[in-house]
């Protein structure tokens, strides 16, 4: 499979990553994942904007413009030719020798970019039946707003939930629900939708941006307020969101049914609206060509 390696598109086997790349040694890097629908990179601008915000937060200067990065991603997408896929791209701070914690002089280090594309499809059957989750203490760091490649905290949480037989972890910090291991988390109570506000405790999701717009049009009240695990257990509906999984109902947490223990009506309404808006964007993109 072809991949992007800095400005070149090469076979994956041709990529050489230095052992002293700071991404490899420290997890010193950032990433993004964009869903490709029928060849269209959905919400690309928002993903690129977030990459730049993450870069600024880790004090890394990206050695290309958004336009240049976009062109490279499109070149790769055309080359690989997968119509329904996800594109993963990451930028590490680059190679600095010897290995030292302090940041190298930005003039002496070249950030390393890579991107690859893998097939992806809508997880329809899971979206129809929902998934089961377990509460896990959120022991991640206090920069969860940065889309960092250091994902050990998230991975450990997911593993803890999966070891107990659940599909996903619902993270809880100081009694309040933050998000899921790789998604934002939402609950519905008395027809009102709730999610944790943006800030340093959650990732500002791109699917979340779209859902804010959709619920406005659907006339659903949204409150970006934190809620406790007890409030979540007493909720009528729960779902998680991400660019790849879209809207995924959570029907049970710690073996307690949420609402009726099946995907709720507002969840289904929001999922339908999400799929429609994706289809409209894909159509508009096709009409432009
Ligand atoms: C921790 C975390 N929260 C939320 C999300 C959802 O973000 P997005 O909607 O941009 O995919 C992700 C996606 O990877 C994530 O890793």
Automatic annotation (TrEMBL):
<dbReference type="InterPro" id="IPR036038">
    <property type="entry name" value="Aminotransferase-like"/>
</dbReference>
<dbReference type="GO" id="GO:0047810">
    <property type="term" value="F:D-alanine-2-oxoglutarate aminotransferase activity"/>
</dbReference>
<keyword id="KW-0808">Transferase</keyword>
<keyword id="KW-0032">Aminotransferase</keyword>
<keyword id="KW-0663">Pyridoxal phosphate</keyword>
<dbReference type="GO" id="GO:0046416">
    <property type="term" value="P:D-amino acid metabolic process"/>
</dbReference>
<dbReference type="InterPro" id="IPR005784">
    <property type="entry name" value="D_amino_transT"/>
</dbReference>
<protein>
    <recommendedName>
        <fullName>D-alanine aminotransferase</fullName>
        <ecNumber>2.6.1.21</ecNumber>
    </recommendedName>
</protein>
<dbReference type="InterPro" id="IPR043131">
    <property type="entry name" value="BCAT-like_N"/>
</dbReference>
<comment type="similarity">
    <text>Belongs to the class-IV pyridoxal-phosphate-dependent aminotransferase family.</text>
</comment>
<dbReference type="Pfam" id="PF01063">
    <property type="entry name" value="Aminotran_4"/>
</dbReference>
<dbReference type="GO" id="GO:0008652">
    <property type="term" value="P:amino acid biosynthetic process"/>
</dbReference>
<comment type="subunit">
    <text>Homodimer.</text>
</comment>
<dbReference type="InterPro" id="IPR043132">
    <property type="entry name" value="BCAT-like_C"/>
</dbReference>
<dbReference type="GO" id="GO:0030170">
    <property type="term" value="F:pyridoxal phosphate binding"/>
</dbReference>
<dbReference type="GO" id="GO:0005829">
    <property type="term" value="C:cytosol"/>
</dbReference>
<dbReference type="InterPro" id="IPR001544">
    <property type="entry name" value="Aminotrans_IV"/>
</dbReference>
<dbReference type="InterPro" id="IPR050571">
    <property type="entry name" value="Class-IV_PLP-Dep_Aminotrnsfr"/>
</dbReference>
<dbReference type="GO" id="GO:0046394">
    <property type="term" value="P:carboxylic acid biosynthetic process"/>
</dbReference>
């Amino acid at each position: 499979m072809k991949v992007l390696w800095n400005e070149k598109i090469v076979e994956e086997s041709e990529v050489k990553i230095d052992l002293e790349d700071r991404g490899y040694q420290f997890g010193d890097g950032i990433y993004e994942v964009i869903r490709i629908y029928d060849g269209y990179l959905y919400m690309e601008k928002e993903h690129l904007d977030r990459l730049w915000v993450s870069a600024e937060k880790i004090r890394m200067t990206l050695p290309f413009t958004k336009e240049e990065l976009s062109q490279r991603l499109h070149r790769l997408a055309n080359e690989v030719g997968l119509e329904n896929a996800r594109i993963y791209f990451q930028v590490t701070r680059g190679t600095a020798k010897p290995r030292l914690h302090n940041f190298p002089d930005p003039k002496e280090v070249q950030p390393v970019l890579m991107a690859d594309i893998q097939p992806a499809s809508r997880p329809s059957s899971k979206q129809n039946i929902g998934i089961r989750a377990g509460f896990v203490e959120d022991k991640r760091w206090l920069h969860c707003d940065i889309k960092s490649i250091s994902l050990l905290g998230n991975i450990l949480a997911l593993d803890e939930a999966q070891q107990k037989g659940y599909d996903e972890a619902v993270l809880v910090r100081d009694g309040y629900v933050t998000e899921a291991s790789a998604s934002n988390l939402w609950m519905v109570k008395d027809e009102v939708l709730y999610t944790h506000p943006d800030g340093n405790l959650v990732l500002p999701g791109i699917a979340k941006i779209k859902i804010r717009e959709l619920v406005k049009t659907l006339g659903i009240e949204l409150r970006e307020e934190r809620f406790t695990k007890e409030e979540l257990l007493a909720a009528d509906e729960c779902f998680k969101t991400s660019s790849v999984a879209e809207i995924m109902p959570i029907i049970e947490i710690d073996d307690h049914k949420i609402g009726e223990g099946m995907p709720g009506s507002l969840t289904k309404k929001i999922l339908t609206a999400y799929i429609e808006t994706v289809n409209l964007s894909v159509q508009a993109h096709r009409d432009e060509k």
